[in-house]
Amino acid sequence: MNLIRAALFAVCAFMGTMSLSAQVVWKSPAQAKEIIQTELNVLHAPPTPPALVLGTQQAEMSLQYARNSCPDCMVLKFKQEFMKRTLVKLLEGGTDTGVAVQEVRAVFINAAGTNQPVLAAVQTTYLYIQEKLKA
Question: Residue 70 belongs to what domain range?
Answer without folding.
Answer: 25-133
